[in-house]
Amino acid sequence: MSEESYLTDDFLRQLINVGEVDILVGLPTHNNAKTIGSIVHTIQSGILRGFPRERAVIVNVDGGSRDDTPELVTGVSIDDLHPASNLYALRTLPAISTKYASSPTSGVAFRTILAAAELVRAKACVVMSPESTNIEPEWLSQLLRPIYDDGFDLVTPTYRRHKFDGLLITNLLYPMTRALYGLRIREAYALEFGFSGHLGSQFLGQNVWNDGTGEAGVELRFSLAAIAGKSRICQSFLGEKIRIEHHTADLVPALRQTAGTLFSALEPDFPIWSAVAGSQPVPTTGADHEVLLEPLRVNRKRLREMFSTGVAELESVFQSILSPSTLAELQRIARLGDDEFHYPAELWVRTVYEFAASYQKSVISRDHIVQALAPLFRGRVFTFLTENRSASSDDVEKNIEGLCLEFERLKPYLLQLWKSRE
Amino acid sequence: MREMIISELSQALHEIARSFAHFLPRLIVMLVLAVVGWVIAYVVRAVLRSILRLIKFDKLSENAGASQLLTHAALPSATEMLSRFVFWVTWLGIILLGVRALGILGLQEQVAKFFLYLPRLFVALFILFFGLLAASFFSRAALLAAVNANVPSPRVLSLALRSIIIVFVLSIVFEELGLAEQTMLVAFGIAFGALMLGLAIAFGMGGRDLAKRFLEKRFVRGKKEENEDELSPL
User: Fold this and answer.
1) Do A299 and B231 touch (CB under 8 A)?
2) B:209-228 residues touching chain A, CB 8 A cutoff
3) Same domain membership, residue A285 and residue A305
4) For chains A and B, what is the number of CB pairs under 8 angstroms?
5) Of B63, B155, B234, the CB nearest to A168
6) Which of A66, A1, A55 is closest to A29 using CA atoms?
7) Is the pLDDT of residue A167 over 70?
């Protein structure tokens, strides 16, 4: 098999020792020594509770930890669970580990997990994030049960989030994915998700690994491939999403993982998304979202200033990307004061669609196009924060729904832009 | 005496006539070559122009920033410029081959020099084009990074980087062409040194507070500045 060439001999030996399994839990790590022990315990507990008779394995793929994270994963004994939880293993639950690189790369980590799943012929797989410190044993069942029992191919999570958390998802990724692919998947880019062995093998065989697009945002690419391949998809409510600070530090990598990945998938998926009209809900276990409303202090002024500076300083870049009318409108609102400033949904959607079309045409370096979206996104965030400052959970949801419908309404504009290149 | 003069004159006239008769076919060959060369150069220009339009060379040149330079200098588009350049080089090359056929010793040497110089000319043009492309790419990358990091005066930073790369590229181009190598080297050294010194002084004098704030923000664990990064984008 081709994947054998990038799996180390030692890891292959470990997989051979494990043999065939029903369930594989993938755990990508990088310097997570502080939290990994309790996470592995929770995973073990989740497997013992939900799948006591199934053959399961925990596969840790490590991106060059220097704090002995892999040793901690493989060193956690299932026997430690007994006194506290009254759980008893009917089978062994091995935890194996491999170091795939000296620095973390989500694409390579995920590819290693997929290759391992294929080799041990796992029926259902789940990827867990080592940064979700509030993980509960039930998450395993919630992500695996629809695959194992109901024949779904992909289970994406839904969370309880603060209304201002995940703004890139609520203002770009969710509405655009929904408008283009026609499925209302709240978290197409998720760090915890379940999938069938069949879907994993299919994705492993796709040509996304060598073109560079398989690196950042591979999880989103996986979800989009599942949608494009007409796989059976559902959502499962997990609980509260813990905000991870060091992941949010830079907006540009987040844009690369989401907007960049989505834009790059639009070209191969054109026959699929161009034929879709409207959107359909996907089966969901539990709530499809929950919103927390506690007050949060945010420096909105800085957001607006960065938007205005970006529009002024990047004019030459925007001239290559945006239509003259969109750019003129952005320049007009950039001159407005904090009180009058408003980045309307329609303008935001036109902006994003023009960025997507320019990405396709490669009018300048594609990475530069994605980076240029950051200041404009800040302007949109400013408006979103202003509009929802004292909004209730229903109002927030209504506003997001309104934006989604705007993305759907203006989809013909994207198609028109797309065809104009030809 | 008179007969001697007439004889010498007629001999000289004969010599001239013989030389001219000897030279005339070569001249005709040269003229024919010039005409044929013009036709060949014209065809080469037409083919090259079509190819460049097909591969959207103007767009590439626009991205490289070369188009803006040409527009500022009131010159035609990059495709037109390159086509014309190749036309003249081809035609001139063929004419010089014809000149070689004339058999004039001094000229032959110059013609040989011209042909030896051609590869350097092409290499210089190649370096210039890709140098401008690199200058455009890196200055845009710097501009975007500076804007997204909220660094003051991002356009100045980008322009400075672009200027440094262009000066560097031009110095290589001149060196490749063998034009005023020493002057260019000294000029580049002075310009680059002055720029670096200027930046060092500017950062040293004007950037003390900025550096202090940066270091404090980076290393001192105090009250965290309230910013948009507290909002998780994902």
Assistant:
1) no
2) 225-228
3) no
4) 89
5) B234
6) A66
7) yes
Under 8 Å between Cβ of A226 and A233? yes
User: Cβ separation of A364 and B227 shorter than 8 Å?
Assistant: no
Report the candidate in B197, B214, B137, B201 with the shortest Cα–Cα distance to residue B169. Answer: B137
Q: Which residues of B touch A375 (CB under 8 A)?
A: 147-148
| This prediction's pTM | 0.81
Chain A residue with CA closest to B134: the answer is A365
The candidate with the shortest Cα–Cα distance to A293, out of A392, A360, A215, is: A392
A205 and A133 in a single domain? The answer is yes
- For chain B, the structural domain boundaries read 1-103, 117-214
> Which CATH code fits B117-214?
1.10.287
Q: Which domain holds residue A396?
A: 300-420
Distance in angstroms (rounded) separating the CA atoms of residues A230 and B100: 72
Residue of A74, A87, A13 lying closest to A46 (CA atoms): A87
pLDDT at A10 over 70: yes
Residue A8 and residue A64 share a domain: yes
The pLDDT, as a whole number, for residue B221 is: 54
Give pLDDT tens digits for B75-107. Answer: 778 888 889 889 998 898 888 888 877 777 777
Our CA-based measurement puts residue A241 at a distance from the nearest CA of chain B, in whole angstroms, of: 10
Write out chain A residues lying below 8 Å of B228, CB-based.
251, 298-299, 302-303, 306, 378, 381
Dist. CA A29–CA A132, nearest whole Å: 12
Distance CA(A259)–CA(A216), nearest Å, equals 11
**A318 shares a domain with A282:** no
A210, A129: one domain? yes
Whole-number Å distance between alpha carbons of A2 and A24: 20
Complex ipTM above 0.95? no
Asked if B53 contacts B79 with a C-beta cutoff of 8 angstroms, the reply is yes
pLDDT of A193-203, one tens digit each?
999 999 999 99
Low pLDDT (below 50) residues in chain B: 224-229
Q: Give the Å distances, CA to CA, from A48 to A35, A113, A130, A169, B35.
A: 20, 21, 19, 33, 91
Burial B137-158 (b: 16+ CB within 10 A, else e): bebbbbbbebbbeeeeebbebb
Q: Kindly list the residues from chain B whose CB atom is less than 8 angstroms away from the CB atom of residue A365.
A: 137, 140-141
Length of chain B: 234
SS3 A158: strand
